[in-house]
């Protein structure tokens, strides 16, 4: 079984734009989320699903720099981005993770 964690993130939040790249104890919020997800023993691959907006370029580059696969899709189709990211990664099982959850528990994922 191929388990893929799809972390959905974008910079264009209405209430707190750019929050996924905001500093939290010396690291961007997205760094905490991705590193915690990658601690899961059962996740075979982690993918960042973001939009194709230029606002998300820095986010996509940051995740890619961590070795995380990046899927970019329609800004107005969250479900489509997550589903397409999972499909491209060959997922049989999908774990959807919101990018504003820096304390996501790898044990809970497993």
Automatic annotation (TrEMBL):
InterPro entries: Cytidylyl_trans, Nucleotide-diphossugar_trans
CC annotations in GO: cytosol
Official protein name in the record: Acylneuraminate cytidylyltransferase
The organism of origin for this protein: marine metagenome
């Amino acid at each position: 079984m191929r388990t893929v964690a799809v972390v959905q993130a974008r910079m264009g939040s209405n209430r707190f734009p750019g929050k996924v790249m905001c500093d939290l104890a010396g690291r961007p919020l997205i760094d905490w989320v991705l590193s915690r997800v990658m601690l899961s023993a059962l996740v075979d691959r982690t993918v960042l699903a973001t939009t194709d907006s230029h606002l998300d370029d820095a986010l996509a580059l940051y995740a890619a720099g961590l070795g995380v696969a990046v899927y970019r899709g329609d800004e107005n189709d969250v479900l489509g981005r997550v589903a397409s990211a999972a499909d491209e990664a060959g997922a049989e099982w999908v774990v959807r993770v919101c990018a504003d959850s820096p304390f996501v528990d790898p044990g809970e994922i497993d």
